[in-house]
Amino acid sequence: MKRTNMTLGLDLDGCITEAPEFFSTWTHSWPGRVIVITYRRGRQKAIDDLAERNIRYDEVVLVDRFDGKAEVIKDMGVSLYVDDQPEMLKHIPAGVSIMLFRNEGNYDFADRKWMLSQETGKLV
């Protein structure tokens, strides 16, 4: 399969862990690089979790600050990034496409509303 220069960035916890079959299919069909950027400790545990879920990736990057993901995304030329925490998305450069992955931690399924803080959302 020919690779393109488009790089996909994915969060592990709350995204890949919530829909492993979807992300396995997507990463194996993605024509470019796949970078897993996770806010966790334990590199080997992250690698093991990805293997257990059959996720294709080119690199795994662990960060220890909310804005750390934005730095990695910029430095590694990520084109599209998926995360479940709006706090992690605040500092991502404008040229990067973002997908907010819905789960019980950020979406109230009973009320059908996103759960945002004053730091991450405003009413319009």
Describe the structure concisely.
The protein has 124 residues and is α/β, with parallel strands linked by helices. The protein is 30% helix and 22% strand. It has a single domain (7-114), classed as HAD superfamily/HAD-like (Rossmann fold), CATH 3.40.50.
List the helices and strands and how they pair.
Elements: E1 7-10, H1 12-16, H2 20-29, E2 34-38, H3 43-52, E3 59-62, H4 68-75, E4 78-83, H5 86-89, E5 97-100, E6 107-108, E7 113-114
Parallel strand pairs: 1-2, 1-4, 2-3, 4-5
Antiparallel strand pairs: 6-7
Task: Please provide a written account of the structure.
- The structure is a single chain.
- By secondary structure, the protein is α/β, with parallel strands linked by helices.
- It has one domain: 3-Layer(aba) Sandwich (Rossmann fold).
- The strands form two sheets. It has a five-stranded parallel beta sheet with strand order 3-2-1-4-5, sandwiched between helices. A two-stranded antiparallel sheet has the order 6-7.
- Strand 2, helix 3 and strand 3 form a beta-alpha-beta unit.
- The longest helix is centred in the first third of the chain and has 10 residues.
- The radius of gyration is 14 Å and the shape is globular.
- The relative contact order is 0.19.
